[in-house]
Amino acid sequence: VTEKLRISYQAGRAEAIPLADASVDRVVCVDVFEHVDDLRRCCREIARVLKPGGALLFDTINRTVMSRWIVIGAYERLLRVAPRGTHRADKFIRPEEMRRHLEAAGFYCGRFAGLGPLGFNWRREPVFVRWPVLAVNYLGVATRTR
Asked: Which of 2, 48, 56, 75 has the fewest CB atoms within 10 Å around its CB?
């Protein structure tokens, strides 16, 4: 079944999303949170634009020695998959910090799942798969409760 979707793209900052209050059902943040200037404000903004019961789907990078080595050391410096300086290790987010920010913004968070590198696809882009640990990347779903 093919549906015609009306999609409207708008540029903005995660800390000041240019959408009305309670105007969207879902927010997807893939490789976003580790780049924002103010994670607390970003989480509040996402909660503001989500309808009650709406869901945030996300992934981000854990702040560990292993993630620093893989993301910055291997992907940026050694393999040059990402431009040098794309990531800052001090902006990586531990799962307990992410949970704390989301819950303070009015989200219910389920369990987070680990992601880790598997290899590369034919375009030399990294491929990630579920890992049993949260040591590199992790993903989650958070539901707006209020």
From this structure: 2
Helix, strand, coil fractions of the chain, as percent rounded to 5:
30, 30, 40
Q: Which residue in this structure is represented by tokens 């989500």?
A: 50
What is the structure's pLDDT at 96? 98
Residue 57 neighbours by CB under 8 Å, 6+ apart: 26, 27, 28, 29, 139, 140, 141
Q: Going by DSSP bridges, is the β-strand pair 24-30/50-61 parallel, antiparallel, or unpaired?
A: parallel
Residues 6+ apart with CB under 8 A from 76: 82, 83, 84, 85, 86, 87
Which residue reads 């000041």 in tokens? 16
pLDDT on residue 1: 55
Chunk the chain into consecutive blocks of 10 residues (it has 146) and report each block's average pLDDT, rounded to whole numbers.
76 92 95 96 97 97 96 90 93 98 97 91 86 95 94
